[in-house]
Amino acid sequence: MPPTPRQILETLLPHLRVAAAYARQIQSRIVAQPDKASPNFFAAALSDADLSIQTFVEVLLLGLFPKVRFYGEEYEKTYNTKYFKAIDLGEQDDYLITLDPIDGTQFYLDGFSNYQIILNILNRDDYEAALAISPALDIYHYALRGQGCWRGSLDTPLPDCQPWKIQTTGKTVILGWELSSLVSPLSQHYSVIDLSTDYSRQTQIPTFNAILSGELAGCVLKAGQWIDSAALAFMAQAGGCIVTGLDGQPLPPLHTNQNYRRSGVLVAVSPQVHQHLLAAVQSLPKISAEIS
């Protein structure tokens, strides 16, 4: 029998702890790689740690689960992509494992603590599991489809983690790239962080993963990449958050997505926050039109 998503996570977790220790150890000395082609500097950032952790995980998967599909963020730059069964979705229950070796590379390069290692297990229709490790904070979260979300310190075994549920009184909302027009309609209710204009290399600001720490009331994403922000949305939903498209409807099956990403995602900690986010998007029809 093929391994279950839980079995895959339990097998990989001890090795991912090593990857987390590596990322933490070398951060102060990290060397940046030449930027990747990308429309923004967040997505363009690349470091030695991205490439090294991806190679490490590829070796693990090819040795432990050689029949899985695998898509890593740096698939074009590694030596191992050609050895995997495929890099895309297959039929139902033919899992695709995805990896963001350093989610938040620019934060990592600038010495901040809010970077992560994110590994996911995708089915044809939806996520089966997601695991997000925060090396600098010594914590990780994981979620299993239909079973909830959990949190533990890095040395805690999967079965001993504690259930994670939304717990926030925060009034901060984060906007993803190219959503600056939403700042005005949302500012009457929230403190709004616009990643395209508010990022500072001197002062750490929250990013999407702060939804798991209780710092955020919600997020609006023009595109949710499968490897990172869409995975965090899956985890948030497993913990009780409301997650929809920009039209307020449930997110469509993964196999209908293009380019390894969901188009337009709202994440809210309560129905009221969701209504505020939805109303702001609907007040600016151009945003919805661009994404659809």
TrEMBL record:
Keywords, alphabetical: Magnesium, Metal-binding
InterPro entries: Inositol_monophosphatase-like (IPR000760)
GO molecular function terms noted in the UniProt entry: metal ion binding
Pfam families per UniProt: Inositol_P
Chain sites annotated for binding Mg(2+): 73, 100, 102-103, 228
Cofactor: Mg(2+)
Transmembrane segments: none
Protein name per Swiss-Prot or TrEMBL: Inositol monophosphatase family protein
Lineage of producing organism: Bacteria, Bacillati, Cyanobacteriota, Cyanophyceae, Oculatellales
